[in-house]
């Protein structure tokens, strides 16, 4: 029986940030990792994605960031078919996303300031127009005193906070974050959650993959659970 996509809120195509219909994925020569995933993330909704280690949370985020393409089913982002979009279309989809990678992917030769400024520079903004915004974001994540330092001199938690500041600085339409509080203490985890919630109140759709079930429950967000490659949970 075909499964209806889970609905997190309104499902009019104009208000959907993400739609997965029967999406499957497996790495080359490996077993299937994602099976028949049906999911709608309404524009402006907030979700946690939980599940045991190896369940496929990072893989699902890789499919959503178009680092991997679905091997079955249909993926729509911002109302457009993305699963089979040509490579030349990928920057257009990605320019609307802020991604926090599990391994941070900071540029070691750039200062903390320049790492955070990168998405704005790539979007063509001039330094004068974004400098205050970058400083404000670094202050928010507690790195206001470290803006001239390079990533190799930062602790794991500081790198994580820097990666989050970079992902959110240009107010993307969609934030995809893989374990964004995995390297920080509980108080900083709550502060970072507030940052994601503030952006969400401004209209950004947020999906956070996390082992931290306590933080997920405290957030009041819908909690999606991935297990054995299948998705359950979320708002009905
Ligand atoms: N590049 C890859 N090539 C082949 N198999 C992979 C690759 N990356 C992940 N896998 C496999 O896919 C499955 C899902 O991994 P994934 O990293 O998505 O899980 P996860 O839920 O994010 O785990 P964790 O919570 O430990 O980060 C695992 O069995 C893993 O071994």
UniProtKB/TrEMBL annotation:
GO BP annotations of the record are: cell division
Q: Pfam families, from UniProt? A: ABC_tran
Q: Please state every residue range assigned to the domain named ABC transporter.
A: 18-236
Domain of life, per UniProt, equals Bacteria
Gene Ontology molecular function: ATP binding; ATP hydrolysis activity; transmembrane transporter activity
Per UniProt, the keywords (alphabetical) are: ATP-binding, Cell cycle, Cell division, Nucleotide-binding, Transport
Q: Give the family, as the similarity comment puts it.
A: Belongs to the ABC transporter superfamily.
Protein name as catalogued = Cell division ATP-binding protein FtsE
Species assigned in the record: Brevundimonas alba
């Amino acid at each position: 029986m075909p499964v209806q996509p889970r609905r997190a809120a309104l499902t009019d195509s104009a208000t959907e940030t993400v739609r997965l219909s029967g999406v499957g994925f497996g790495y080359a020569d490996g077993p299937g990792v994602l099976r028949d995933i049906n999911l709608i993330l309404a524009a402006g909704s907030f979700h946690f994605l939980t599940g045991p280690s190896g369940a496929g949370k990072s893989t699902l985020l890789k499919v959503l960031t178009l680092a991997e393409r679905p091997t079955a089913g249909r993926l729509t982002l911002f109302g457009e078919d993305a699963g089979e979009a040509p490579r030349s279309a990928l920057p257009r989809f990605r320019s609307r996303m802020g991604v926090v990678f599990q391994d941070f992917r900071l540029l070691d030769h750039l200062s903390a300031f320049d790492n955070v400024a990168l998405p704005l520079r790539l979007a063509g903004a001039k330094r004068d127009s974004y400098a205050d915004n970058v400083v404000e974001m670094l202050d928010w994540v507690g790195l206001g005193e470290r803006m001239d330092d390079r990533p190799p001199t930062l602790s794991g938690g500081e790198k994580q906070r820097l990666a989050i500041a970079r992902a959110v600085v240009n107010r993307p339409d969609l934030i995809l974050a893989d374990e964004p509080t995995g390297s920080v203490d509980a108080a900083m985890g709550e502060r970072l959650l507030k940052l994601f919630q503030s952006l969400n109140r401004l209209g950004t759709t947020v999906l956070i993959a996390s082992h931290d079930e306590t933080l997920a429950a405290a957030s009041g967000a819908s909690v999606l659970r991935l297990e054995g490659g299948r998705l359950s949970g979320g708002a009905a």
